[in-house]
Design a protein that fits this description.
Length: 151
């Protein structure tokens, strides 16, 4: 990965984590900006070590503590699982692959973190928000030319 991409990516992580914790919500439901940006990492580079480093950077910026919380461990697992899936699915367009990941991992986050809310309006609203903001984030990264040349 070009070292110049690390600086914008760090700024992007900080921006979306600011949005996540700023209290922005629609109908009292917040989109999961942190999940969306972690799922975009495989499209920034094609080097697995750089991808893992970017996931760890995102989680380090998210919460700098000596112990990982359950949510951070699940985000780490989702990020690593997403890397493996992205390496195997190359027939789809990058946008379709990313948006599919957004839908799948949003659903899985509710299964693991809030199973009682899985069939609630909160889940469906967040799924819709993540879908819409996922498209915007992917388009934004594409327009900023931050996506990997192989995407």
């Amino acid at each position: 990965m070009n070292a110049l991409k690390i600086i914008p990516f760090t700024i992007i992580i900080l921006f979306f984590e600011f949005l996540q914790f700023s209290g922005i919500s629609f109908f009292d439901v917040r989109p999961d900006f942190v999940l969306l940006i972690i799922l975009a990492i495989p499209f920034l580079t094609r080097n697995i070590l750089e991808e893992v480093a970017l996931i760890l950077l995102a989680l380090l910026i998210l919460k700098f503590t000596p112990v990982f919380s359950r949510e951070l461990v699940i985000l780490l697992v989702f990020g690593l699982l997403n890397l493996l899936i992205q390496k195997k699915i190359t027939a789809w367009s990058p946008a379709a692959t990313y948006i599919s990941g957004v839908v799948i991992f949003t659903a899985l986050s509710y299964v693991f973190l809030a199973p009682k809310l899985f069939f609630s309006s909160i889940f469906f609203l967040e799924l819709i928000y993540n879908f819409v903001f996922g498209i915007i984030i992917f388009w934004g990264l594409l327009r900023l030319k931050l996506l990997s040349d192989q995407s």
